[in-house]
Specification:
The complex is a heterodimer of chains A (about 450) and B (about 70). Chain A is about 75% helix and about 0% strand. Chain A is mostly helical and about 450 residues long. Chain A has one domain. Chain B is an all-alpha fold and about 70 residues long. In chain B, about 25% of the residues are buried. The chains are: A mainly alpha (about 450), B mainly alpha (about 70).
């Protein structure tokens, strides 16, 4: 291995994201880390988020675990900052404040009724970060801890572990038909519509909104934004538009399905293929009954796998087409590899290892509960929360407003989502209405 | 007024806005879908396979069907 490659492995942020992600996974597999704290729910007392509730009774608190998480994540990432040539103490000081804001954002999102609206920590994290950066301004010491890219990419490697190909592929052709046929079609058509019809100048903004709308909301937006090197303001805008429309669709779609007397299984598949967030899909599906909730969940889960496929395809497309000089020759495989965002390797690698090695080796129960449920999912949640607070701290309303020229991003979302609604309804009728496949329910 | 005082007033107004938003969304009467979610304790912020009970149940049903065949 050349000197250059060796240094890249230990100096590039993308590679550090891979090391951090796999370190967390190995720590969970070997039992070094058995759980990562998750904030509890609260109704009228915000401090209840720190309580551990068992059988309706408080049996302890998570203060100690939160301190360990703050220190553990902080020391780990500070080491990476040091290896990349930064100042670890300065980073750690800023990171500690970002972590505190992340706890506040997460706590707000855990209020019972706010949870029911589906306004996630991403929304509150952005809001708090934007509030500071647009009023008193983000001080330098705080900015030093706002390592957005590092948090996002490490979180994405852990997200890869949650995308389990093997199980989802067993869930049947109808779900695959609805999710895998419509989502890529809508993504490509939205991209063309945004660039050719709306004449939007930022290709990365169009791509992030298209992935956000067609695949699965915040997670797809984050993964695609990292793959096409989108600006932070572009990700903020895509996530903001998506979150608001998700709440509206979660409320309106079950009401519409009931009002027009649509077959609830077709309606559920329609919900699963169109509403962005997984949780909101399950919530909307449950309004139609238990069977409908399952169908909606299945379609959404099958669609979720596309995150990995889409992120990889977008990264390759960006390297080979968007970033390529029009007069330059087609880049070689080595050149594509050199320019490819390396966190993708960790993201896809984690997904494949979990799907085809760990699940068969250790069993679904162990992997889902002890590794994913207890450690990596919670850790990923904290990293994304840190990332959204950081994005808010680094953004200002002027830059955000500049992305909104003529409301084009909102039109792109509305037109894309309308197309998504029509195509998914057609696919749901074909797949779940007994036309192409026998009815399972 | 000095610029930094205006900035602090803006920060205070922003904090008041966030608190108002939390109070309105968290405690004001909500639409039926939201009340349904609260009553059934539905994880609207749930993510992916590991947190979705519906898919676990369906996967188990499907595996049982496959074994029976």
């Amino acid at each position: 291995m050349s000197e250059h490659k060796r240094s890249q492995l230990f100096t590039a942020e993308d590679w550090w994201a891979v090391w951090f992600g796999f370190l967390v996974i190995i720590a969970a597999l070997t039992g070094v880390v058995t759980s990562v704290p998750k904030l509890g729910k609260w109704v009228d007392n915000p401090l209840d988020v720190f309580l551990i509730i068992k059988d309706g009774v408080a049996s302890g608190n998570i203060f100690g675990a939160l301190v360990v998480l703050w220190l553990g994540l902080g020391v780990l990432t500070a080491f990476g900052v040091w290896a990349m040539g930064g100042k670890p103490w300065r980073y750690f000081f800023g990171y500690s404040a970002v972590f505190a804001f992340a706890v506040v954002s997460y706590s707000i999102s855990q209020q019972q009724q706010i949870r029911a609206y589906g306004l996630e920590y991403a929304f509150w994290g952005l809001l708090i970060g934007l509030l500071i950066s647009n009023t008193v301004g983000t001080p330098g010491w705080l900015l030093a801890g706002a390592k957005t890219e590092m948090f996002i990419k490490t979180g994405l490697v852990l997200l890869g572990a949650e995308i389990l190909f093997d199980k989802i592929l067993k869930l049947g052709p109808p779900g695959l038909f609805v999710a895998w046929l419509v989502a890529p079609t809508v993504l490509i058509l939205m991209y063309i519509f945004g660039l050719r019809w709306l004449k939007m100048t930022s290709k990365s903004l169009v791509m992030v909104i298209a992935a956000e709308t067609s695949v699965c909301g915040v997670s797809a937006a984050i993964a695609t934004a990292a793959a096409c090197k989108a600006k932070k303001e572009e990700l903020t805008l895509a996530v903001g538009i998506g979150l608001i429309f998700t709440v509206l669709m979660m409320i309106a779609m079950p009401l519409f399905i009931k009002a027009v007397g649509m077959d609830i299984i077709i309606g559920a598949a329609w919900i699963g293929g169109t509403i962005d967030s997984t949780g909101a899909v399950i919530a909307a599906g449950s309004m139609l009954g238990a069977q409908a909730e399952k169908v909606a969940a299945v379609v959404k889960m099958v669609q979720n796998i596309l995150i990995g496929v889409v992120a990889f395809a977008v990264a390759v497309y960006w390297v080979t087409s968007v970033e390529r000089d029009a007069n330059a020759a087609r880049p070689s495989a080595m050149e594509i590899w050199r320019r490819m965002p390396k966190f993708i390797v960790g993201f896809i690698g984690a997904s494949l290892i979990f799907s085809f090695v760990l699940m068969p080796l250790f069993g679904a129960e162990f992997v889902e509960n002890r590794i994913l449920g207890a450690v990596t999912t919670n850790c990923r949640g904290w990293l994304f929360c840190l990332a959204f607070v950081s994005i808010g701290l680094e953004s200002n309303f002027r830059d955000l407003a500049s992305q909104l020229v003529g409301g084009k991003p909102i039109w792109l979302y509305i037109v894309g989502q309308s197309l998504n609604l029509v195509l998914t309804l057609l696919a749901a009728w074909l797949a779940f209405g007994g036309i192409l496949f026998p009815r399972a329910f | 007024m000095p610029k930094n005082i205006i900035q602090w007033i803006r920060l205070a107004a922003g904090i008041a806005l966030i608190i108002t938003l939390v109070v309105v969304l968290g405690f004001a009467p909500a639409p039926r879908q939201i009340r349904h979610n609260v009553a059934n304790d539905i994880e609207v912020t749930a993510k992916f396979y590991s947190e979705a009970p519906a898919i676990h149940e369906y996967a188990r049903e499907l595996e049982a069907q496959l074994k029976r065949r």
